Amino acid sequence: MAKKRSAPSGGGREKRVESSTGRVNSAGGRRKLVAFFVVSSIIAIVTYRFRQPPPSEPYVYQRGLVTIHANYQHVLAENSKVSQNTSRRHYTYPVLGYITPWNSQGYELAKRFNSKFTHLSPVWYDLKSQQTSLVLEGRHHADRGWISELKKTGETLILPRVVLEASPAVLLGKEKQRNKAINLIVTECKEMGYDGIVLESWSRWAAYGILHDPNMRNLALHFVKQLGDALHSIRSEKISGQKLQLVYVIGPPSSEKLQEHDFGPKDLETLSEAVDGFSLMTYDFSNPHNPGPNAPLKWIRIVLQLLLGTSGNRAQSLAPKILLGINFYGNDFSLSRDAGGGAIIGRDYLTILEKHRPELQWDKNSGEHFFFYTDDKDIKHAVFYPSLKSISLRLEEARTWGCGISIWEIGQGLDYFFDLL
């Protein structure tokens, strides 16, 4: 995973009633004049109410900030402002937010916007090979006080991420080792009071080159199913009747034609009963050697079509388990001959805006904002960073499919992003 106008003022044309040179002496004239002002007042009140945003509408919509016409002044002035009611959820499907120890702001934002999430996944654990055995590392990252505060103030489930760093030959090749790995994970959940885990392993297995081997691929899928079943056999301490959950991290297919190492629709169906959600990493589309948008909207649609197909029944049954990846980080690419640059987070983005005051441009093909600037060494840069409009479009796309979302990661964004959730 990667390390990403003001509303028009109210009121129409003013109507002015100029007094006549003649006096209104009759009672009928006075009644007509009173009636005129009463009707005018009612019309004004009704017009005003219709022009105002609904009370429950997020602040960013009230201010007209979710627009392709974004500019750096509004970002700098508004990025820390959100609706007063931070507990109201606007996105009704599951929302998972990742948090990293190296970006501690995410912990505070998780507490502040607790009710916006159904799942929170602190990035804490690695399962590693230790000679011929296995060891689960990462408990030293776990913050029990933070977990306790979250449980007191909301219903969000805590599912720390576990990355399988262990060699597949050690982990998958022997049943005893597979059982040991599952026991380590389940025991950690019980001892720490977690609601399950987020497992990341597919990209590691692809890097080891084992997924083209049918036997190893089957063992890999069997391990995930076995882990899901083991977690489902344990009841959550937090919610009566709730089983421990497994969310599985999957990468997007690398092309419109599935490759051997890709996680495809058959794999999705195979694991659908044992896995409660699939965290789909639909970001990192571009890189320093191929600068461009972070997650083009058309590409996201292609990925979802590849996984869910065009069949209505299949999409309806599996789409709710897809957690479409949305990046809260961006990229600052150097456009020099020696390509460079990389990920930036919210505070980096604000610093660049303040220093260079660029013109934000909208790319309708990718559905993202971007801008150019020239640094102190006279090198031109292209910056792609999420905007309220780009995020809202991705939420709309996920909603259309009936998918949840997963955010990498919440400490990397701007406060007003949360107003959309």
From TrEMBL:
Query: Keyword DNA-binding, does the record have it?
Result: no
**SUPFAM superfamilies the UniProt entry points to:** (Trans)glycosidases
GO CC, sorted alphabetically, is: endomembrane system; extracellular region; lysosome
**SMART domains noted in UniProt:** Glyco_18
Q: Does the keyword Transmembrane helix apply?
A: yes
What Gene3D superfamilies does the entry give? 3.10.50.10, Glycosidases (3.20.20.80)
Q: Which PROSITE patterns match?
A: GH18_2 (PS51910)
Q: Which residues form the GH18 domain?
A: 93-421
- Which keywords are on file for this protein? Lysosome, Membrane, Secreted, Signal, Transmembrane, Transmembrane helix
Which residue stretches belong to region Disordered?
1-25
Membrane-spanning residues:
33-50
Its localization reads: Lysosome; Secreted
Q: A Gene Ontology MF term for this entry?
A: oligosaccharide binding
* A biological-process GO annotation: carbohydrate metabolic process
Cite the Pfam families for this sequence: Glyco_hydro_18 (PF00704)
Which InterPro entries has this protein been placed in?
Chitinase_II/V-like_cat, Chitinase_insertion_sf, GH, Glyco_hydro18_cat
Q: Which family does it belong to?
A: Belongs to the glycosyl hydrolase 18 family.
- The name under which this protein is listed is Chitinase domain-containing protein 1
What does UniProt list as this organism's lineage? Answer: Eukaryota, Viridiplantae, Streptophyta, Embryophyta, Tracheophyta
